[in-house]
Amino acid sequence: MTDDSSAAEKRVWMKAALGISIPYPGDPEPRGVAPPAAARGIRAETAAAADPDTLLAKAARDPRIWTQTVGAALQAAPRDRPPAPVTPSTPTGPKTTIRNRVGKKIEIVTGKDGRVALTTEAPPVQEITFSGGGGKGAALPGAVKALEETGMLKDVKCFHGASVGSMTAAVLAAGMSAEAFTQVANDTRMGPLVKGGDILPLNVDGDALEGFVRQQIGTSVQGKIAEFLKTKQGIDEATLSTVRAIAGKIDRGGGVTFGELRTLSKIVPGIKDLAISGTMMGDDSATPGKIEKGKPQLAIFSADTEPDLDIARAVHASAALPPVFKPVNIRMSSGVTARFQDGGIMNNAPTSDLIGAERALDPIPAGGKMTFVFEGEASEEILKGEATPDRKRVSDLVTGAPMSVAEYAQNRALADRPEDIVMVPLKFKGPWYKRTDFSGFIGGTVNFDMPKEDKVKLQSMTETATLAHIKNAELPQTRDFASAGEMLSSLGRADLEAMAGGDFPGAKDELKFRDEVAKRLGALDTLAVGAKPEALARGPLQQALKALDDLAQGDANRQAYIGRELNRSGKFDPLLDLAKASGGKGPTILRAGVAVADALAAKSHAQTILREVVYPKMVAENPKGIGGTVLRQVDTLLRGVKTPKDVNDALTIAIKHFAKKSDFANRHGHHAFAAELQTYLMKVT
């Protein structure tokens, strides 16, 4: 197989597997995705025009048109096209309307050229993240009230949070109602409790707050368990025993752990999973019992990382903002004792996308996300799809961590998905002698004695903002596809079943195909363990792979689907590594799987480069200078990489610029920066 034919084959799989384009090197920087108020049409770049010789069709066959979701239309034009967005017109033709099993409408329009427009209702929100902000959290009961009254909480699977957001996420995951949450937030005893009885919140130990959070979590969980046990018919004894054991532990004063909360979330209605952020400042790994300061790093507390950790202790660590609170020591599951500060230092909005909690492989995500951020200059930029690096020397000094870098990394990622953001309002009009702006550090973050009337005002405004966001987010979404086959291979299971029930052509066959793929992957699991290179050429493994390949029948969309499934859980990673090392031997679906794996690896590697090297440089560099412009271009390219070559192309731009840049006495570290980027170049096969 020639390099050209291999590349052509790869581009077909990846176009079908993962979706849209990224900017070409040298393109003007896109301004980000459309804000929530814009039309909800979502164009897939795979939807090429009817004429195969058009520039759009050529772009759609490019191997770099890979992504982890089907997103906005081509936002940057290659050099042989004018620098303007290219959006193929939505197909027009016969319309088919189908209802899925929960009554939601699906509309499919098939054009004369074979392209398909799919319009579906927005997916249910399955993840909600609350950012940190100290006393600004007094506004959050308004958000919770809106979420509860609109029924948005029923489909949520996991709450995420940082600092005060971790407290909100924890009690909601434990099943606390909006009414109870509002009562807690508006209790006049909360201020003195947070400050530990001191007049000024300075170097507070936070133990009283931790105990209060533990009590609130326990009370909420006990309430949900009690409701569950009233209707325990049909529940097996082993499950009941598990639930009762956790309830008994709470009765004895024990705190609920992350692992216990996850267990209950699968059994007891109203209880959800939880993940919160912390900033690890050091540990005693070098000398047991003596904590030594290390490089500040993000830590995520969850059932995956620390299943036996008391949630209240983790919340205490996540909210330990210096100099307000003392650091918190936690004995980790590894046996090491680590010291933590506020989670908002390294990640103030720990969404699953930002913390890399899952592999995003589905062209059409099954669940939506919602992230609450507090009003301020940064949040207003984020809603426009923009972010600006800003060096905050005081914040970096006080926290002892690169907070400026972490904040830009977070804001840049959030700005890529402004449709998920709810900005919590913190300003209102009032008499000149009264505080009406709670967005600052003194007036908001460390303002733990906010008057109740001001809290109520902010809560009302936040409720209104949340309701407006929910209304906008529920608008139907339209995606365009190059063919009906591409659409069917991209659908979630529920919508595909609905189409099969509505006798949409090809839907029943697609369901049968997926069921057979799942069956054969189950059999492949055992054969792939410890496989040697020769097993790809002969024997049971080769036969199982060939059978899986035969299921695709040479169809690129089905090959792409299998490629995604091979990458979904990680259990086939060794097999894909083996296939890659063998130089592309094996059936087509295995090479498709390797192509998807390369895309995931490139994206992960690019994120590391941005976080560890590029963003620190961006914060230090003049954003309006040539260097700042180059870095913004590299930032854009690295955020959209789909292959190792894309990573290298982006890095080469920065390396060439900064290696040649004048830097007297290496004062600005330009040459060292270029040299460091050189070490991040990826091997291209």
List its traits.
eight-stranded mixed β-sheet; five-stranded mixed β-sheet; 685 residues; alpha/beta
For the biggest sheet, the summary is: 8 strands, mixed
Average pLDDT confidence is 84
Share of β-strand residues: 5-15%
Alpha-beta classification = alpha/beta
User: How does the overall form come out from the CA principal axes?
Assistant: globular
Helices, by number, come to 26
Number of strands: 13
| Poorly predicted tracts of residues | 19-87
Helix content: 40-55%
In quaternary terms, these chains amount to: single chain
Radius of gyration: 26 Å
Can you characterise this structure?
It is a single chain. The protein has 685 residues and is of the alpha/beta class. The chain is built from 26 helices and 13 strands. The strands form two sheets. Strands 5, 6, 7, 8, 9, 10, 11 and 12 form an eight-stranded mixed β-sheet that branches. A five-stranded mixed β-sheet has the order 1-13-4-3-2. Helix 1 packs across helix 23, helix 7 packs antiparallel against helix 8 and helix 20 packs across helix 21. The chain is globular, with a radius of gyration of 26 Å. The two termini are 14 Å apart. About 10% of the residues have low confidence.
Q: How are the SSEs placed, and which strands pair?
A:
Blueprint: H1 3-18, E1 41-43, H2 55-60, E2 95-99, E3 105-110, E4 116-120, E5 125-130, H3 140-149, E6 158-161, H4 164-173, H5 178-186, H6 190-194, H7 207-230, H8 237-251, H9 258-265, E7 273-287, E8 290-302, H10 311-318, E9 328-331, E10 337-341, H11 352-355, E11 368-374, H12 377-383, H13 393-399, H14 403-415, E12 421-424, H15 441-445, H16 452-473, E13 477-481, H17 484-490, H18 493-501, H19 507-528, H20 540-552, H21 556-568, H22 573-581, H23 588-620, H24 626-639, H25 644-660, H26 670-678
Parallel strand pairs: 1-13, 5-6, 5-11, 6-7, 11-12
Antiparallel strand pairs: 2-3, 3-4, 4-13, 7-8, 7-10, 9-10
